[in-house]
């Protein structure tokens, strides 16, 4: 049985870079790794509907916190069988964005904190109703909000409404901090995204209690 390790953080925090470097560190020690990233744009109809909504192409859908939360959740549900099989077949399954991402962003949109009503509603939706596997560990990659925003601005694509909203990003960062502090859903490890990360040491830490 493999370990489900989730990487969370703001848009522009460096999650893809961390996923790539951590995968290489695991593979150097002979650990079999599978990777997933959500939303699955271009692969899932629900993810593509998310993209349409976030870019204003789906009427007022993007204005609905609970409606957007359901679309994000259904995208993950569509990958459930693959995730479960990978947990059986690999030592580590690394996921870029997972259930906590939905909780953090939707709570931030409603100006709620880590103990807000929507956080529990999303947990009940994704874990209890949809049966998604609970992570073994969640990594929070922390960077200053202004740095994350500036990184997102340099990407060669049109930013969505979440990425453009600096106030939302700041509130989301606070919710992430709160989720990590209370150990929401699974244990958290907070990483400094502005400094050097010892990926070899991190890979050992993540497998220490496996």
UniProtKB/TrEMBL annotation:
Domain Thymidylate kinase-like: residue ranges: 7-181
Keyword Transferase appears in the UniProt entry: yes
SUPFAM superfamilies per record: P-loop containing nucleoside triphosphate hydrolases
Catalytic activity: dTMP + ATP = dTDP + ADP
Coiled-coil features, chain-numbered ranges: none
PROSITE patterns (UniProt xref): THYMIDYLATE_KINASE
Main EC class the enzyme belongs to: transferase
Pfam families (UniProt xref): Thymidylate_kin
UniProt GO molecular function: dTMP kinase activity
Enzyme Commission number: 2.7.4.9
Keywords linked to the UniProt accession: ATP-binding, Kinase, Nucleotide biosynthesis, Nucleotide-binding, Transferase
Function: Phosphorylation of dTMP to form dTDP in both de novo and salvage pathways of dTTP synthesis.
PANTHER family on file: THYMIDYLATE KINASE (PTHR10344), UMP-CMP KINASE 2, MITOCHONDRIAL (PTHR10344:SF4)
Record family assignment: Belongs to the thymidylate kinase family.
Name of the protein in question: Thymidylate kinase
Taxon lineage: Bacteria, Bacillati, Actinomycetota, Actinomycetes, Pseudonocardiales
Gene that encodes the chain: tmk
């Amino acid at each position: 049985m493999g370990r489900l390790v989730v990487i969370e953080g703001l848009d522009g925090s460096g999650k893809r870079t961390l996923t790539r470097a951590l995968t290489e560190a695991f593979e150097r020690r002979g650990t079999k790794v599978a990777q997933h990233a959500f939303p699955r744009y271009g692969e899932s109809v629900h993810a593509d509907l998310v993209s349409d909504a976030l870019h204003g192409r789906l009427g007022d859908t993007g204005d609905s916190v609970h409606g957007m939360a359901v679309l994000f959740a259904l995208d993950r549900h569509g990958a459930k069988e693959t995730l479960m099989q990978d947990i059986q077949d690999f030592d580590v399954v690394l996921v870029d964005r997972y259930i906590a991402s939905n909780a953090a962003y939707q709570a931030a949109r409603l100006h709620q904190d880590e103990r807000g009503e929507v956080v529990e509603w999303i947990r009940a939706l994704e874990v209890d109703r949809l049966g998604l596997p609970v992570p073994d560990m969640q990594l929070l990659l922390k960077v200053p909000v202004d740095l994350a925003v500036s990184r997102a601005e340099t990407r060669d694509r049109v930013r969505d409404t979440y990425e453009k909203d600096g106030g939302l990003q700041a509130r989301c960062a606070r919710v992430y901090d709160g989720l990590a502090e209370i150990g929401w859903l699974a244990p958290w490890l907070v990483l400094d995204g502005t400094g050097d990360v010892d990926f070899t040491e991190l890979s050992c830490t993540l497998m220490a209690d496996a």
